[in-house]
Amino acid sequence: MFEKARTYFERSKDFDYQSLYMLSCMLYDGIGGEADEKCAIEYLKKIAHSDSRQTQHIKRAAQFNVGRAFFEGYGVGRQSDEEAERYWLMAADDGNPKASILAQTILGMYYSRADTQDLKKAFFWHSEACGNGSIESQGKFLQNDMF
């Protein structure tokens, strides 16, 4: 079943961004065939930097996932907190509720870490994420006395 889906997405990736996104997810996780994180990230970056109207519904998710790949160091050559932060900031779109709420939440957590700590930024991003419905950020507010 997954092999058929992957074949379809492979055939339509050049003219359908949704197929390109789904194929990138399958390649990254090795679903329906061999994993190829490097290729998956290349496809996600294509979506993340596209100005096409056809990518607007998946662009922030692609940016979030590229950021996650940099943070974890998979498919990107080397791990980079700076690149992760850059992609998450693109995905979070200054708190826009139509942007990636996951990116807003992860930025709140990122700025709460000891080596990247900036409590003003952590508070801002958790506040934005809470306002946009993030249960994870709401939990952080309840859990931390620092806010």
UniProtKB/TrEMBL annotation:
<dbReference type="InterPro" id="IPR052323">
    <property type="entry name" value="LRP2-binding"/>
</dbReference>
<comment type="function">
    <text>May act as an adapter that regulates LRP2 function.</text>
</comment>
<dbReference type="GO" id="GO:0005737">
    <property type="term" value="C:cytoplasm"/>
</dbReference>
<dbReference type="InterPro" id="IPR006597">
    <property type="entry name" value="Sel1-like"/>
</dbReference>
<protein>
    <recommendedName>
        <fullName>LRP2-binding protein</fullName>
    </recommendedName>
</protein>
<keyword id="KW-0677">Repeat</keyword>
<dbReference type="Pfam" id="PF08238">
    <property type="entry name" value="Sel1"/>
</dbReference>
<keyword id="KW-0963">Cytoplasm</keyword>
<dbReference type="InterPro" id="IPR011990">
    <property type="entry name" value="TPR-like_helical_dom_sf"/>
</dbReference>
<keyword id="KW-0802">TPR repeat</keyword>
